[in-house]
What does this fold into?
Amino acid sequence: MTDDAVIKAALLAIPLWIGASAVIRTRWTIRLPAGLIAAIVIALLAVTVLDRGTLSYLVSFACMGGIYALLALGLNVQWGYAAHLNFGIAGLFAVGAFTTALFTTAAPTGLMANYTQQVFGLEAPFLVGMAAAGLAGGIVAFVIAVPVLRLRMDFLAIATLGVAEIIRRIFQNERWLANGPQPLRGIPQPLHCVTENPACGWLPDWAGDALKPLTPGDYNYLYVIIITLVLMVTYLLLEHAVRSPWGRVLRGTRDEEDAATMSGKNVTAVRIQSFVVGGVIMGVAGSLYAHFLVTIDYSHFRPLFATFLVWVMLMLGGSGNNRGAILGAFIIWGVWSGTAFLTDAIEPALNVISSDLASRAAYLRWLLVALVLTGIVLFRPQGILAEETIVSRHLLDRRRRKQGQHRVHERAT
It folds into this structure.
């Protein structure tokens, strides 16, 4: 095995370890070493069996799947736990992406100022840009929530969809803000210097020598680690939050708002808080998306791509279940990516029937996603992983112990 393959396997093992540790449901003392062994085996198999192009594609797939998983987690806070019918995901996603772009890029000067316009450029570090994106998403979500959350269901959906389209049109038409209809380019990628030669100046010599086989084209092997870490931290924080008193109030407000009000809970404040938390997560997802693509414009944030797909992901995975939201995101992104190969394969056959029909082959992707959505509603409305009825870890652990004792008793008898 070449040095290049060893380094890629080591980098792949990190997100795989994090994912395997989340999937394996047992004690941490068993989960972490078991997840590490599984991650190393899968990573070594991947770099050995798969060719370079296929492996790079799968890493890019994982990057986009992780970004959509963050969007699904943000929507789960709003819809799954608080019943906010938010159709404005694309707007908060765009706010996060353009905010981090403005914070981390340099203001254009000289000749570039004739082609690129932006309200400011701070050249801030990646973490500052991501924090600013989350803060901007939360602020915009708060501004939306105060007047809009007085509405319910259908009216709330229409209002949030309209707000998202207003945000997108602002970025499209106000060129002074973020280059308007023209792409905003040159968004820096964190730790990209690790793949360059010479490597980052702050990197120890031994690390630079170890990572020397990497090229700039291998950067996504590093970025998928960053996305996985952000996704896992977000997941753990949300799991803690929904099992806290705040999370129980959130569910109570969703299920019986009048009863929660009579119990002395500030229902309005809790509803706004859940919407803002979801907005922060969507803003962070927008930041990761911008740094992944390097170049963004308003067309990346159309409702079909940044709202409809996220809803299908959450519905498939399981509304009210954070693990289900992540699972649904990767499955639907796999379906969406797979349909691209399908439409390419059948395009010649469609061209024989009609050239006009072949030019519309891309719309078959939406048809297939719609069929998946129809199947979810008809056969599995609760999603793959239904919402947990017991949110207290103490009660959940006690129920599992009882179930284990019951199984032991059955085997004994």
Notes: The mean pLDDT is 88.
